[in-house]
Write a structure and sequence with these properties.
Blueprint: E1 2-6, H1 10-17, E2 24-26, H2 29-35, H3 39-49, E3 54-57, H4 63-74, E4 80-85, H5 88-99, E5 103-109, H6 112-120, E6 125-128, H7 130-135, H8 140-154, E7 159-162, H9 168-176, E8 181-184, H10 186-191, H11 196-212
Parallel strand pairs: 1-2, 1-8, 2-3, 3-4, 4-5, 5-6, 6-7, 7-8
Helix pairs in contact: 1-3, 4-5, 6-8
The protein binds erythose-4-phosphate (E4P).
Length: about 220
């Protein structure tokens, strides 16, 4: 499973990239707003840090406007992935951009039928929003399972990018259900390493090691 980080915070991205665990980045207009940075400037910095795909989202809602914005975003770097909303215009733009050789991420997916359309439009990634479905008492993880089945039935190459991940359990469930990628907020990504028995075990080993009076180097 690939790990993307869901943020436009450059220092977090740089820090996590140094772990070697990062395969890409997703941003959206809300995350750009939260960063307080200029979209072009911050996206350029992110693309220089991470080798994998960096999703940058269009804000136009019509086909022509989306293509114009995509042309500007695509010039930022080779690893830009154009993020498009799951609307008819977004799908049309997806088909167009994919045929032109761009990576695409169709976002705001809340149903299996929407995911089917995105695959038919040739999307590189489909982003089903787990947490936002959970928020309205619909089991978000069921959507991942449905999309996995549909994509496997027809051998669609579109990768399932589990988005709106809120908890470590979401990451585990998405992996169990066969999502290709999870885009994870920095704090949640860092929390995956935590286990109280790891901390306790390490403490005990270090205490015993001290008692031996030995050193490895
Ligand atoms: C992913 O591409 C989305 O930008 C993000 O995961 C949305 O998460 P949220 O529902 O926590 O805002």
């Amino acid at each position: 499973m690939k790990f993307f980080v869901d943020t436009a915070d450059v220092s977090e991205i740089s820090d996590l990239n140094d772990t070697g665990l990062l395969d890409g980045v997703t941003t959206n207009p809300s995350l750009i707003m939260k960063s307080g940075r200029d979209i072009m400037e911050v996206t350029r910095e992110i693309c220089a840090i991470v080798d994998g795909p960096v999703s940058a989202e269009v804000t136009a809602i019509d086909f022509d406007g989306m293509l114009k914005e995509a042309a500007v975003l695509a010039k930022i770097a080779d690893n830009i992935c154009i993020k498009l909303p799951l609307t008819m215009d977004g799908l049309k733009a997806c088909k167009h951009l994919t045929s032109d050789g761009h990576k695409t991420n169709v976002t705001l997916c809340f149903s299996a039928n929407q995911a089917l359309l995105a695959a038919k439009a040739g999307a590189t990634f489909i982003s089903p929003f787990i947490g936002r479905l959970d928020d309205i008492n619909i089991e978000g993880m069921d959507l991942i399972a449905e999309i996995r089945t549909i994509y496997d039935n027809y051998d669609f190459k579109t990768e399932i990018l589990a988005a709106s991940i809120r908890t470590a359990n979401h990451v585990k469930q998405a992996a169990l259900y066969g999502a290709d990628v999870a885009t994870i907020p920095p704090a949640t990504l860092r929390s995956l390493v935590k286990h109280p028995l790891t901390d306790k075990g390490l403490e005990a080993f270090l205490a015993d090691w001290q008692k031996t009076g030995q050193k490895i180097v």
